[in-house]
Task: structure prediction
Amino acid sequence: MKSQWENYNKNLLEYLTVITQNNYISNLFYDTPFLVLSRAIAAIPDDAFTVTQWEEAANYLLREKITFSSSQQAIHYLSVLGWSVSVTPYILLEDRTKFIGKSWQNKKNTI
Result:
């Protein structure tokens, strides 16, 4: 029997859209609180999607080029970020300094 994420054939964003009960991938960015995303992400096994897929998802959600050394690192980063931020990724993008502080803009893009 296939795992539920195997049905999404290497499309992490589609999988996140379904498990967060959204109709469109764009809803992940505009309408879904990061806390909801982080809970969904934390439940995904680290071998379910490749590092590249995690980078694509992070780049889409954060609108910033981010690279990870492993899927486990991506899951941890996105999960912790989600616990820190309860707004949608769109609102986070609008005013990152308000929610995370000035260190966000000074951090390295490679995690």
Notes: The chain has a mean pLDDT of 79.
